[in-house]
Write a structure and sequence with these properties.
With 169 residues, this protein is mostly helical. 79% of the residues lie in helices and 0% in strands. It contains 3 helices and no strands. The longest helix has 104 residues.
């Protein structure tokens, strides 16, 4: 083998210099890519950490809301039970008061005739007793003659007067 010529050496040197530049360029690109990947990894790790914190916070907020809703549900259920008990008590009271209400309605429906009767009785009281006199004497518009089967006319007449006008208002 012979020694390389100067041209071959120069070409080899140029080629080595180009390979060296290309290697340096690739190493620089590799370093830049590694830095980019590293920065992206850091950003992703930070973003992951932030997302996990947000997720934890959201989970805690959800748990707090569930607890508050459960407490509200328990309170509402207690209120419902209390109201149901009050309704049962009122239903029982209504059941107990219904006979009295019916009686009161009956009394109220009979009130007008009772008022008229009381007015008539008051008028009778105002008129007073029959004058003392002949028991056989008939007053106009007064009671009829004593019955024929009466044994004691005077007693029957006194009893009639007592039953007709002996009430007070």
């Amino acid at each position: 083998m012979s020694a390389p010529s100067a041209l071959q050496i120069r070409e080899a040197n140029v080629h080595l210099a180009a390979v060296h530049r290309r290697a340096a360029e690739l190493e620089a690109r590799l370093d830049a890519a590694e830095r980019t990947v590293s920065a992206q990894a850091e950003r992703l790790a930070l973003q992951d950490q932030q997302l996990r914190a947000a997720l934890d916070e959201l989970s805690q907020a959800k748990d707090r809301e569930i607890a508050a809703l459960q407490e509200q549900l328990l309170t509402s259920e207690a209120t419902v039970h209390s109201l149901q008990a009050a309704v049962r008590q009122r239903d029982e009271l209504i059941r107990q008061l219904q006979p009295r209400a019916k009686l009161l309605q009956d009394v109220c429906s009979r009130r007008p005739p009772l008022v008229a009767l009381l007015a008539d009785l008051a008028e009778a009281e105002r008129l007073g007793p029959l004058p003392a006199g002949n028991p056989g004497h008939l007053l106009p518009g007064g009671p009829g003659p004593p019955l024929a089967n009466s044994t004691d006319e005077k007693a029957d007449q006194d009893q009639l007067q007592a039953t007709m006008f002996g009430t007070t208002v």
